[in-house]
Amino acid sequence: MSDIAVIAAAATISISAIATAWAEKELGTSAIGAMAEKESLFAKGLIITVIPETIIIFGLVVALQIIGMAGGA
């Protein structure tokens, strides 16, 4: 497997992990603020904070595809 494929897969995971962390921070802060005002928003806040996790899942899928296309795995 080429070094470029390994670097590309690592960059994919790293960038998607940073994006997920940033989105979780922003949405989590907003959800906590909304729940402080109105406690009935707990379920909606919980669902909203889980949604950004799909970013890292998509990053993992793309990284695995990069590794698979490079002939490794």
Number of domains: 1
The first-to-last residue Cα distance is: 9 Å
CATH architecture: Up-down Bundle
* Inertia-based shape: elongated
CATH fold annotation = F1FO ATP Synthase
**What is the residue-mean pLDDT, rounded to a whole number?**
90
Structural class: mainly alpha
Order of helices and strands: HHH
Give the CATH level 1 class.
Answer: Mainly Alpha
Poorly predicted parts: none
CA radius of gyration is 17 Å
How helix-rich are the residues, as a percent range? Answer: over 70%
- How large a portion of the residues is in β-strands, by DSSP E? under 5%
Number of helices: 3
| Major sheet details | none
Number of strands: 0
Descriptive account of the structure:
By secondary structure, this protein is mostly helical. It has one domain: F1FO ATP Synthase (Up-down Bundle). The chain is built from 3 helices and no strands. It has helices at residues 3-37, 42-50, 53-69.
Lay out the secondary structure.
Elements: H1 3-37, H2 42-50, H3 53-69
Helix pairs in contact: 1-2, 1-3
